[in-house]
Amino acid sequence: MTTNAIEVExxxxxxxxxxxxxxxxxxxxxxxxLGFLGPNGAGKSTTVKMLTGQLMPRSGKAFVLGTDxxxxxxxxxxxxxxxxEITNLYEKMSAIENLKxxxxxxxxxxxxxxxxxxxxxxxxxxxxxxxxxxxxxKQRLMVARALVNRPSILFLDEPTDGLDxxxxxxIRNIILEERERGATVFLTTHDMHEADKLADxxxxxxxxxxxxxxxxxxxxxxxxxxALKAEVALPDGSLVSREILLDHxxxxxxxxxxxxxxxxxxxxxxxxxxxxxxxxxxxRGLA
Length: 287
Ligand code: ATP
Description:
By secondary structure, the chain is α/β, with parallel strands linked by helices. It has 10 helices and 13 strands. The chain has helices at residues 44-51, 73-77, 95-105, 113-119, 135-147, 165-181, 192-198, 216-223, 251-261, 274-282, and strands spanning 4-15, 18-29, 33-37, 59-64, 67-68, 80-83, 153-157, 184-189, 201-206, 209-214, 227-233, 239-245, 263-270.
């Protein structure tokens, strides 16, 4: 039986008159990577803040690792790791000092900062002051800091936003390693490729509401259009594309006509992207 790491019911948050998170309900299964996908201002960070005990919901329930986070935030915080968009590292301290300070806050003995830095690709740079780190290095350090207490749930808010491909890949690999270790990962992003690559399931959030939640594969099956795309050469040498819808009563004839009457140069199946599905469901893109 799968147990849930997070259970949310009718969770709502308002900033004054603005309803930022609007009665959302969902579960995150233990050991899964849940991609929380939505455009700027959709309510992703506000949701994470409520789930990590940093904001008190206006109404609704949030159980994290079986504990009501609104009542026992400290108990939850001891078991989770949080990496937020905005860097809040001690710039005048070294990376090792930053990690050790954090380990002390968790009351951890025998903490090996070097080994953790090695894991995030910062081996050998641990004694440098953080102010001398690049943005990608700081972001890796933030991820390392979120791992200090070997969390059962890792909350990552846009962890690869604005990073170079090498740093992004390093962080994605850590996310996968953490799932291997058995951790649950709550990953907010507006990068649909990242969500598609990493997430076991994705939740689409728009204007504070969850509009879909399922595996990327199931969403594509449900909302995507099944089609073939052919590139054909015309007699004058120019190339044009043809789209052939599958599951249509004429599909077989259209495919047969294509091959008998036209010069097919390339043929591939078209699959809806998460972005296409998001637009289909909300009328707006993720960017
Ligand atoms: P982004 O991808 O840009 O980080 P998000 O999906 O995380 O966006 P939130 O930061 O949760 O979105 O914001 C949701 C809504 O709440 C937005 O309309 C935002 O302007 C508003 N909001 C967020 N923080 C505050 C605040 N401190 N005071 C007032 N309004 C806020």
